Amino acid sequence: MRTTPHLQDADAFYEQLLDAHAGLSREQSELLNARLILLLANQIGDARVLQECLQAAGLEAPG
Questions:
Q1: What's the confidence (pLDDT) of residue 61?
Q2: How far, in Å, CA of 31 to CA of 24, rounded?
Q3: Rounded to an integer, what distance in angstroms lies between the CA atom of residue 10 and that of residue 4?
Q4: Positive or negative CA dihedral for 2, 9, 16, 42?
Q5: What is the pLDDT along the chain (63 residues), one digit of tens a residue?
Q6: Each residue of 20-45: b (16+ CB within 10 Å) or e?
Q7: I want to staple 60 with a disulfide (CB 3.0 to 4.6 A). Which of 5, 21, 53, 54 is the partner?
Q8: Distance CA 31, CA 39 (A)
Q9: The pTM of the whole model exceeds 0.90
Q10: Sequence-ordered list of residues with C-beta below 8 angstroms from that of 62, at least 6 positions apart, any chain
């Protein structure tokens, strides 16, 4: 799992992410986030790396 910055243009991506959520209801925004997470997880593809990411984000207990 990478922990050092690797995103080429983080500011541009952040703006795109905000734009994608503009005008959405809370439910629509949560669905967009869920879909985006699944798409990005598919790009990573490595179950071990995904588990490490979950642990680093504090969403899963180590183990």
A1: 56
A2: 10
A3: 13
A4: negative
A5: 888 988 899 999 999 999 999 999 999 999 999 999 999 999 999 999 999 998 998 865 555
A6: eeeeeeeeeeeeeeeeeeeeeeeeee
A7: 54
A8: 12
A9: no
A10: 55
Nearest to 42 by CA among 13, 8, 34, 3: 34
Q: The tokens of 2 are what?
A: 């990478």
d(CA 18, CA 1): 25
Please give the C-alpha separations between residue 13 and each of 34, 38, 51, 52, in angstroms, as whole numbers: 17, 17, 24, 23
Neighbours of 52 (CB within 10 A): 16
Q: Give the end-to-end CA distance of the chain in Å, rounded to a whole number.
A: 16
pLDDT of residue 2: 87
- For 63, the 3-state DSSP assignment is coil
